[in-house]
């Protein structure tokens, strides 16, 4: 299937790169394990190495596409696609696979891995309005963050959102609608066990090489079996500066507030950014992105910093 989408020649190149990365990841993990470097940190260290190697693999794929660019994909069309990808309300179907490595959780300084699969599907309702659906499907590898707390792996709580947006773009494009959290976690430590709902908003503007905006939502729980009710806000400002050949600089920190607690425990405030590139593997356009964020404010047992490595499958209309 993937071979048919990207073409045999590019599939071979992509497969070699991924096999190369996997081989070096396993070699590095085994070498450190033999030398005792992983004995004290166990699975957390392995996750950190996987995160670094994954980032290097995505960076290598992005760089290789600069050296061996598709002749039929002009620079102007790639740059236009990059701007479209950066707009959450664009008429573009995309399926992101976002790897989040959260480092320094709890007294054990554990590393948590979350793979967010986030299909975004725009639906044209009529000549005036569109509906954009965005569903976050988290797959979580939760380590033991403190003595007596077991590790867990599985599906987290699903988060579907629906944005009603004008069909025609203006200086500022907006979308608004409901967002939900469904208690689908396969382990009690991977979700809140509550049904939640609230309003969600997106606003975005494109000015020359800049694409900037914000995603925000507030949710309240109304049913469920969890031990704590939920009143939580998420704000994600984003800014992109586009460079030639589909490259761009990006910052999109996810700020969260838990209104059920007070003071420093309520907020997680990251600061950072990264670099991305839109490129083609044969007929399949992709978007690769690597970012790092340091949490300048976080709950006592929250993560110190995060590595985000993302690959998006793009299906322009």
What layout of secondary structure does this protein have?
Blueprint: H1 2-6, H2 8-35, H3 43-67, H4 75-85, E1 92-105, E2 110-117, E3 120-124, E4 129-142, E5 152-155, E6 159-166, E7 173-181, E8 194-207, E9 210-224, E10 231-242, E11 247-251, E12 255-258, E13 267-281, E14 284-297, E15 305-316
Antiparallel strand pairs: 1-2, 1-15, 2-4, 3-4, 4-5, 4-6, 6-7, 7-8, 8-9, 9-10, 10-11, 10-12, 11-13, 12-13, 13-14, 14-15
Helix pairs in contact: 2-3
Features of the shown structure:
317 residues; alpha+beta; 15-stranded antiparallel beta sheet; 4 helices; 48% strand; globular
State the secondary-structure class: alpha+beta
By DSSP (H or I, 4+ residues per run), the number of helices equals 4
Biggest sheet character: 15 strands, antiparallel
Q: Rough shape?
A: globular
Mean pLDDT: 84
* Spans where pLDDT lies below 50 across 5 or more residues: 13-25, 31-41, 66-73
Cα distance, first to last residue? 20 Å
Quick one: how many beta strands? 15
Strand content: over 45%
N-to-C order of helices and strands: HHHHEEEEEEEEEEEEEEE
């Amino acid at each position: 299937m993937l071979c048919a989408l990207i073409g045999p020649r590019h599939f071979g190149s992509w497969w070699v790169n991924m096999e190369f990365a996997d081989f070096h990841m396993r070699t590095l993990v085994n070498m450190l394990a033999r030398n005792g470097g992983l004995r004290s940190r166990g699975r957390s260290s392995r996750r950190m190495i996987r995160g670094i190697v994954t980032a290097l693999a995505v960076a290598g794929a992005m760089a290789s596409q600069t050296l061996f660019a598709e002749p039929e994909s002009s620079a102007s069309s790639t740059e236009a696609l990059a701007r479209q990808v950066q707009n959450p309300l664009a008429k573009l179907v995309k399926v992101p696979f976002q790897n989040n490595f959260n480092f320094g959780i709890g007294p054990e300084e554990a590393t948590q891995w979350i793979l967010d699969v986030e299909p975004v599907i725009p639906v044209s309702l009529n000549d005036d309005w569109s509906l954009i659906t965005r569903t976050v499907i988290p797959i979580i590898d939760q380590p033991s963050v403190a003595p007596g707390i077991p590790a867990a792996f599985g599906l987290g709580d699903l988060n579907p959102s629906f944005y009603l947006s004008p069909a025609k773009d203006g200086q500022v494009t907006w979308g608004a609608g409901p967002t939900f959290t469904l208690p689908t976690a396969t382990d009690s430590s991977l979700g809140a066990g509550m049904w939640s709902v609230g309003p969600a908003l997106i606003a975005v503007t494109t000015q020359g090489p800049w694409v900037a905006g914000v995603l925000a939502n507030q949710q309240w729980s109304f049913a469920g079996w969890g031990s704590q009710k939920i009143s939580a806000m998420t704000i994600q400002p984003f800014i992109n500066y586009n460079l030639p050949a589909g490259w761009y600089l990006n910052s999109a920190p996810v700020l969260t507030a838990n209104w059920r607690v007070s003071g420093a425990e309520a907020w997680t405030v990251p600061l950072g950014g990264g670099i991305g590139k839109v490129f083609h593997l044969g007929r399949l356009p992709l978007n690769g992105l690597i970012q790092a964020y340091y949490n300048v404010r976080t709950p006592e047992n929250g993560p110190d910093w995060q590595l985000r490595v993302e690959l998006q499958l793009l299906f322009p209309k």
